[in-house]
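Honest question from a wet-lab person: if I give you the sequences of every part of a complex, can you actually get the arrangement of the whole thing, not just the pieces? Trying it with mine:
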Amino acid sequence: AQKITQTQPGMFVQEKEAVTLDCTYDTSDPSYGLFWYKQPSSGEMIFLIYQGSYDQQNATEGRYSLNFQKARKSANLVISASQLGDSAMYFCAMVTGANSKLTFGKGITLSVRP
Amino acid sequence: GAVVSQHPSRVICKSGTSVKIECRSLDFQATTMFWYRQFPKQSLMLMATSNEGSKATYEQGVEKDKFLINHASLTLSTLTVTSAHPEDSSFYICSARVDENQPQHFGDGTRLSIL
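Yes, you can. This is the full assembly:
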């Protein structure tokens, strides 16, 4: 079975600062993919970044980067230069080679302060 | 690219009404579409996986006769909540993907309120 764990309580960050959102995962499948999605209060789910288990380098997409530590089974999202529009719920999710369904974590609420 | 359109965004209706929600991939062909339900401040709960031209695969505990899913083409899947009751009130969101190696792209969701 696969599992995603997001245990941080609500996170707060000052505008223009960087913030790290934690995500740990568990799977016995050597082939898997990790995703981060952002859900603003309006409800839509916005795909942010993807990391494959065999990718040699950490994924980056603009202000988003994924700190992938395979041995620790962690895939933390780093948001640099936070903006007020980054305030949202953030979900970490995983698919495996054996199970193509997305498994979501509980989510983390991020609030950016001006 | 990879835009998914979901309609309607908001439904308010009386108990006993059937409600149809559409999910369309606008600029790509989606071999697989997914339907999720989300309660306030909780994570997404997968209801069913829909493959074009075949019957949907429902998750355990989801009533297939209650939540009818049709995936008639590579760009359209529909979820019909039959004889909806207040306990069916929730946020329903669909997603679509090209294949297993691509991320799921989500629609904007539908807020369903049954009075």
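Two things worth pointing out. The mean pLDDT of chain A is 94. The two ends of chain A are 41 Å apart (CA to CA).
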